[in-house]
């Protein structure tokens, strides 16, 4: 309340206190994105063109969806090493069901996601009920579902997507009507404004400090500039990508679940301290099982987008650096490896950092080995920053 009463100077002072105490929030990743844009634009003037930025947006969906699932797991202070294999197996199940057996593509996708949810529940059961370490359970899953992927694909090895089918369009469809992009931007800004005003009203009625109408208006104006600027950029190329719309919908929905629901608070509570959560009456095993189901389900959807992006499902989809990039994205975006701290937006921001770096390096014809080295260095820097931040917060009494 005092900060808001002091106006701009109060906010600047609070920002300085947060930085000194190690509470950096999304500041490092935002500064990193600005630095990435400056560096690659100086190296290649096509980096910030509408066409190239649209391509980056397309690359976000697959790994971004997997990264959102990773965020849920990391909030528990755990890990899931099976998500890359699950993404590949899910894409294989959908492709075989739709292409080889003629099942409706929507039903084939639902079948793939349903199988992934069952697998996630199985992982959670072994971890939560039988006490097997999550690392071991998901490592076994990584091997098992990779084998399942090969078995499902059979001797063919590769199945092309149905031309102009649902899966083919997931990562290749654009809303080329300019009104769609601007409409989505307007809905996003209006949604934020309504939610912020209602939240402030509820806090005042409860006798709690709340943002002023002026502050909310300034934040909404800043969001509007960003949203309509992005919409304008997409309309200069092919239009708004469906893949980005789906990713944003999942991120916003996940953020709402984590920040605004009882279940989300339980996830943070379990990640912050298992015994304390149990004594507070939280069913720790239920939270753990459902989190692994969420991560598995999102991995399946991400696998379908990866299949759409490459035009087919095969025995290698989901392998390589897919899992590592998803974990790296969540951590780079600000989700702590130690549990209890993070949000769904960190998956989007972190994935954007990684894909921007990859695209920028591709434009410089940099070898893949160098790309891996740079991504590893960025991930290490993010983990070091997280560790230092937690230590600083504990020292300052805010950890």
Judged by helices, strands and strand pairing, the structural class is: mainly alpha
Question: In angstroms, what separates the terminal alpha carbons?
Answer: 22 Å
CATH level 1 class label: Mainly Alpha
Global mean pLDDT: 87
Number of DSSP helical runs: 17
Under CATH, the topology can be stated as ABC transporter involved in vitamin B12 uptake, BtuC
| Shape assignment | globular
Strand content: under 5%
The helicity comes to over 70%
Largest sheet: 2 strands, antiparallel
What is the strand arrangement across the widest sheet?
Answer: 1-4
Poorly predicted regions:
none
User: Using only CA atoms, what is the Rg?
Assistant: 22 Å
Q: How many structural domains can be distinguished in the coordinates? A: 1
Give the total of beta strands.
4
Subcellular location: Cell membrane
Organism: Kitasatospora acidiphila
Membrane topology: Multi-pass membrane protein
Function: Part of the binding-protein-dependent transport system for D-xylose. Probably responsible for the translocation of the substrate across the membrane.
